[in-house]
Amino acid sequence: MAEDLSILTRTATPPDQTLRYGPHPDQVADLRHGARGTQLPLVVVIHGGFWKPAYDRSHAQAMSAALAADGWSVLTLEYRRTPGQPQDTVQDIAAALSTLVAQATPHNGDVLLIGHSAGGHLVLWAAAALAMPALRGVVALAPAADLRLAHGLQLGSGAVQSFLGTHPDDQPNLDPMNLKAPTVPVTIIQGEDDQVVPLAVAQSYCKAFPATRLVALPAVGHFALIDPFAPAWAAVLEALRALSGTRPASAGTAE
Question: 252 pLDDT band (50/70/90 cuts)?
């Protein structure tokens, strides 16, 4: 199916604040205040783009603005994306989460992570690798959840090799498949027609971690999951509401 790429250039209402967590230009995050922020967890958005310098948080602004309009306070992270320097990337994610959550008010003290594509990889990594007492759940949208498989499929024209600077077997601690299971609920939302990060990648992660809830959406591609105007967006909102306790989640590992 042909992907609608309009979300990559769509404009959005500007953030209320931009916070800094380090001296590098990419060590920043945009904060949007939600009207029901004091009642809801803070939603931390980590953008995708196969960890490449060309793709920054700008294409996550529309989804972030839509989440804020739904009442959530939203923190949209930027991070360093230097080829062959993956430690910079994960160190930035860790630093942003440890530094900015307390500043990103209002929220009820809890945190939900949501990430798309490469950002989906990073939220799964963070949930397993970092100590985050406030974390209540993770939503991974079409995540690059299995780096070894993604490398074997040559996703993003060799994006995994470019990101890591080596074969994924040489950086096992950066692959969520090699880490412990997250201790919080994880929902993966995946388009069945995604040709950028195919369903098989999500299925591989769910096989390794069967407590994961997989929501597979027929006739949905890669970018519809971050497009507030797409029908698939309803599944994203449902997952966040379920993890926050404002909507019931269906039990089980896969749908």
Answer: very low
Q: What is the DSSP string of 32-88?
A: E--TTGGGSPEEEEE--STT-TT--GGGGHHHHHHHHHTT--EEEE-----TT-HHH
CATH number (domain holding residue 128)? 3.40.50.1820
pLDDT tens-digit map of 25-35: 999 999 999 99
Name the β-bridge partners of 45.
76, 114
| Burial class, 254, CB count within 10 angstroms (exposed 0-12 / middle 13-18 / buried 19+) | middle
Each residue's pLDDT tens digit, 183-210: 999 999 999 999 999 999 999 999 999 9
Work out how many domains the chain is built from and give that number: 1
CA distance linking residue 228 with residue 8, whole number of Å: 12
Burial call 107-135: b when 16+ CB within 10 Å, e when fewer: bbebbbbbbbbbbbbbbbbbbbbeebeeb
Q: Is residue 254 part of a domain?
A: no
